[in-house]
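Structure ticket #2291
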Amino acid sequence: MLRRPLLALPALLLARPGLAQAAYPSRAVSVLSGYAPGGVTDIASRAVSERLGRELGQNFIVENKVGAATAVASTAAAQARPDGYTLLMGTTTLAINPALQPSLTPKEPLRELAPVGPVFTVGFVLHVHPDLPVRTAAELIAWCKANPGKLNFGSSGTGAVNHLAQALFAQRAGIEVTHVPYRGGAPALLDLRTGRIQAMFQAVLEALPTLREGATRGLGVSTLARDPTAPNLPPLAETLSGFEAVFWQGLFAPAATPQPIIDQLSAGLRATNADPALVARMAEQGVILQRGTPADLRGLLQRETVMWGDLIRQAGIRAE
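Resolution: structure written out below.
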């Protein structure tokens, strides 16, 4: 009786479908971020990555690659080997940059990156200086229509998400306002408190201290539902139907990453974002964790690329 040599057994095992991917991840995974350490985006990226690493049994280490409106990090991820060991915490900038700064790479994020799943969203508060004689979004719109161009609307910089939220609000409301860009949210908030500007969209958690002090007055939030950290503020969508403008983050891999790896990462991310302790800890930072599939993240990026691209072109917004 002929017997197959035992030496052939490992080769047969390796040839079985799926066994090569089953070992993933066998070493530490780099998670690239385009934001500097210390901010809410970085804090959330590290918390989610640490919990994801525990879920999948390896270290997921955040590396901050700052520059070029997050394009340094996203380009490095798009050009990395598609083996699952270099990932990207991509954000809304992937939808904004192709229209706002078309020279930046990746030029086609949906072709050059593979979505894994949504990570979180952060909503904005529309708040105004208390001297402005308005208490609701509808009253603000009416005031702006009666005083075209007289409202100084601040932002943390041209092309920032809170600037685009303001431009989208003005477009949907049919009003004319004056955009005043700053280099960051802190100086803009200071001028809002003193009345040098009269209105601003700002991340909920950042706006809450001034709202509680009465230094500014909140009119609404930019999310479709009420924000749990500011439950008394109505969604602006109650005034402007369907209005939504949020900062989001999603996990991406390089294009051509094997589907079994994408599936494993996606399942791990959904389990991570369902952890009640992590959900509660992130909510304290104004961060709402999201559970979704690669298709959910792809759809979000597709929709926002169209929405922000159309707005940028129609409003003539150009990067500074």
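Closing remark: The longest strand covers residues 113-122.
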